[in-house]
Amino acid sequence: MSTRTEDLVEIQQLLAKYAVTITQGDIDGLVSVFTPDGTYSAFGETYALERFPVLVDAAPKGLFMTGTALVDLDGDTATGTQPLCFIEHSQHDMRIGYYRDTYERTADGWRLKTRAMTFIRRSGDHDHGRPHAIGRPSA
User: What's the predicted TM-score (pTM) here?
Assistant: First the structure.
């Protein structure tokens, strides 16, 4: 049986792997941090794992800087919120916001089950992004 501290460290390492693999364009590494039925939500859509390669390919490239997540453990599940600052590589334009996550302990350790992006706008508004056609599932 793991301790609370061990669980939190494992989740923090999982989230670090998310940030590093997406920054480096490592789709296999990125997918590995999710449960097989894991999803990512933004831009008015929820994307299943099989859609990640298209979504990531269409997204701007750059540095995903994440802060320490605030995690609430509940047995073999958990919820959390993690701040994000994305810096686009060619112009160094920034996007800021946070992820709201659910985590699940699996036979392979902790994994992200759901990750939902919230953007913080210059106006101070918080939203989930503007819907667009890139990476949407085909009809």
Answer: 0.89
End-to-end CA distance of the chain: give it in Å, rounded.
Answer: 45
The CATH number of domain 4-124, selected from 3.10.450.50, 3.55.30.10, 3.40.50.2300, 3.30.1300.10:
3.10.450.50
Reference 64, options 25, 38, 109; nearest CA is 25
Residues 36-61 have pLDDT tens digits of 999 999 888 899 999 988 888 888 89
d(CA 100, CA 40): 10
For residue range 56-111, list pLDDT tens digits in order: 888 889 999 999 999 999 999 999 999 999 999 999 999 999 999 999 999 999 99
| Residue 113 and residue 103 in contact, taking contact as beta carbons nearer than 8 Å | yes
